[in-house]
Amino acid sequence: MENRTATTADTGVDEEVVSQMADYATRGSCLPIDNLYTSEPPIVDPLVTATSTAQDRTLDQCLPLLKAADSNIEYNANGVPRLHRERHIKYLEQTLGNLPAPFVGADASRPWCMYWALNALSLLGADVSKFRENLIVTAAHMQNKTGGFGGGFGQTSHLATTYAMVLSLVIVGGESAYEVIDRHAMWKWLSSLKQPDGGFHMSLGGEVDVRGAYCAAVVISLLNIPLNLSSDSPASAAGLADLHTGLASYVQRCQTFEGGISAKPDAEAHGAYAFCALGCLSILDAPHRIIPRTLDVPRLISWLSSRQYAPEGGFSGRTNKLVDGCYSHWVGACWPLIQASLGAPSQPAQNSEFCSFYDREGLIRYIMSCGQDHSSKGGMRDKPSHRSDAYHTCYVLSGLTSAQHVVSAVLAEEEYVANTAWKVSPYSDPQLCDEQDRLNPTDPVYAVPQKKREEVMTYFLSKPGF
Ligand code: FPP
Ligand code: K
Ligand code: ZN
Prior knowledge:
Blueprint: H1 15-28, H2 50-66, H3 85-95, H4 110-123, H5 132-142, H6 159-172, H7 175-178, H8 183-193, H9 210-223, H10 234-237, H11 247-253, H12 271-284, H13 287-294, H14 297-305, H15 327-330, H16 334-341, H17 360-371, H18 390-404, E1 405-411, E2 420-426, H19 450-461
Helix pairs in contact: 2-17, 3-4, 4-6, 4-18, 5-6, 6-9, 9-12, 11-12, 12-13, 13-16, 17-18
Bound molecules: farnesyl diphosphate (FPP), potassium ion (K) and zinc ion (ZN).
InterPro entries: FTB, PGGT1B-like, Prenyltrans, Terpenoid_cyclase/PrenylTrfase
Domain Prenyltransferase alpha-alpha toroid: 83-448
Organism: Apiospora saccharicola
């Protein structure tokens, strides 16, 4: 971007910018696609840096797709591409089969690969029950006698792979899948990861961060793991009462000066960690009680709002970085939890304006136009210059379903560890996607189909202790 010199003396505002803004205001309303999504922002910082150059390149890739200017793509009446549902299903099923040699590098992430594919398939409405038997055998091999799941056979247990494996078993569902999990060993292992500062190690001797807080809270609540600590837990030696003690204050220490959440205290705020923080807190107590008590919500809302960019419409993960489809989930899933934190569940927001703390239209446009691989390969991606992969397919589709639905919290009568039940209803104000492009709803905290989450919790609630 060249330096601009013509400046209006009295306002100090660049004349070119003023005329662009006037143009923007008049043209926006008469185009089928609002100018907000099809033109460069009216005010651009003239300083050229590596960051601004990367941003310009991103706009160059996204704008033709956002303008519905690609004749190879089928757009609906709103200028939104159709969801390539069948291609995405085919792509995901392939990722569950034999993979080519370069995937050896992902050998420690096999539970993740299974979760991404199974969750995305469920969102797309595909049948995942045919993977149950194979998953059960694979999961059993990846479980360690000392508790938890590794990334593969013989690998050390890790909270991230344990989270992904437990969610995969929850998605295929059924007693035989649930009963693979050794809950007593899981309890011992989680106790050994629990730290005197309230947080959890990701693995024995591994890092302590907010992913651990979220993954542990998910596993504990889904499996109804008793909260008391085993006697050899380092947290027990330090006098902590149970697995939840000090967890909310650990999360609190991860909020940064920007208002976002970092991996651990005094690091950089990132959208993935904002989701981990809000998800963890929403499991510990009802969001309207625990979130305002723990976090500076106005500052967090301000930081989260800054994650959505125009004209792209998608979210970035952190300040001065690029839009990326996977943040459709990490940032997008923060919004229903933020919304739930603002009022008691007995007074759910009725007004649709209230259900949109971000621009749903922008996110849907980014996902459908830029986040889909429009070729026969299918799958979803970070941005148009990137290849589709299972991780992005899972999280871009999770973001899409959350933009297509409204979530409100209702308290369950039962004494759930996670005592929040959610009402998820279709959002269609306006309806940008055709009805056949709507995905199945997802649980905002657990990132699995809501019904599957309810089924596993009901199952393990009937099994207190071991
Ligand atoms: C930066 O990557 C990414 C991070 C700092 C954190 C990523 C963490 C997750 C996506 C998931 C954590 C959650 C769980 C449940 C394990 P980058 O520099 O490549 O991307 P950026 O430029 O968009 O920040
Ligand atoms: K990224
Ligand atoms: Zn990404």
